[in-house]
Each structure stands twice: as C-alpha cells, then as structure tokens.
Amino acid sequence: MTDNAINAGTLQALDLPGVPREIAARISAEAQVLDLPQGQRVFAPGEACRGWILVLAGSVRVTFTADTGREMVLYRVGAGETCVLTTACLLGDDLYAATGETEAPTRALMLPAGRVAALLDESPAFRRLVFRGFGHRLGEILKTMEDAVFHRVDARLARLLLRRAGGDGCLRATQADLATDLGTAREVVSRLLARWAAQGIVDRRRGEIAVLDRARLERLCPDDPA
Fold first, then answer.
1. Which ranges constitute the DSSP H helices of the chain?
2. With a threshold of 0.85, does the pTM exceed it?
3. What is the mean pLDDT of residues 91-117?
4. Is residue 139 exposed (0-12), middle (13-18) or buried (19+ Cβ within 10 Å)?
C-alpha cells in the first residue's frame, strides 16, 4: 500500500452487527481509517498483511494473475464487507497472493494485525463477525471458480451484462474489463460482442455497452452448466 496516496484518520463511531458496544468502541479507538482514491493499490502478491480490512464506503476489486499473465476477478469488497484474502493471510501468517485495488474513492477501516489476534481470543462476537465474513466470501470464490470451469464463456458474459446493466440497459465497461471479470481473453469477449451486435442483442459504444434485447440475452445464459 502506498502511504503517500492515503489520507488516514481516526474513527469516531462504529456499528458492527452482533458485536458488543464496548468491543466496537475498542476497535474504533485502535483502528485506522484509510481514505483511498480510485485506482489505489491496497495490497499486492508477496506483500505482508498489515491488518484486518473492513470497507466502509466504496469498492475494492481483488484479482488473481496467472503465470500466463491472464487476470481474473475473484471478488469485490463493498461497503460493510471484509476481505477474505486479508483474513486468510492474518490467520495463516502468510503473504498476499492476489491484488486488491479500489474501483472508486473508498473509505476503509484497518485494524492492526496484532490487535486482531487479541480480539479474536477475547471476543466471541468479534470472532463470529470475522469468520462469518470469511465463510461468505469463500463461498463466493468457489462459485466464481465453478463458473470459470463448468460454464461456457458466452453464458457467463450474457449473465454479467444482465447483472451489471443499469435501468437504461447500459453499463460502462471496456472489453478488457469484462474479460478480467470472466478470466478470459479480451479477444473472446470482442468476438462475442461483435456477434451479438450483428444480431441486434447489444450495441457497442465507446467505453459502454447497451443491452438492446434482454430476453434474447437471458436465453443465452441458462442456469445449468454447459
């Protein structure tokens, strides 16, 4: 994490579901609040974990890069969520194996590693909070892996477009962004979008994709694996 890109402060009040007020007050007093700009690297492969991270506002995208150079989004950490990789590194005293980067201006809480260990020992409520977040994220990663292995790229791309399109049917994303989300090559995404554009299903614009025919796109992404 690049310290000169961060404005750090202290937290005045924190509400953690299921955590007693006195424990939440201790976390508020001992944690650091990080205000991160969009595009800020939060952690990278080979780096040591500095503390437990809870996103208060914004979003952090966690990606894994294979030895082939291809990237894949593992998960995103939104407001009120914790980072499973950070928790795993803390519990296993290990180094990061993926990259975390902010997708928007982000405010996050960071509780120093030493204080996390003490609170895990002292507070069952905090321990449940940490492991609940860990379990939720682990399930999400397994679903991502299942999709990558067992589902066709066209079905996964169709599902991604439907999920991310706004009320006007548009989403702001480049073909490279979509390829990273799916863990595939940009050329694959480009060919599929070109085919669907020719069929009138989508419209490709500069930095934006418009879904023109949701019904036909939905038929491309059945629930069953390919």
1. 21-30, 84-92, 113-122, 124-150, 153-164, 175-182, 186-198, 214-219
2. no
3. 92
4. exposed
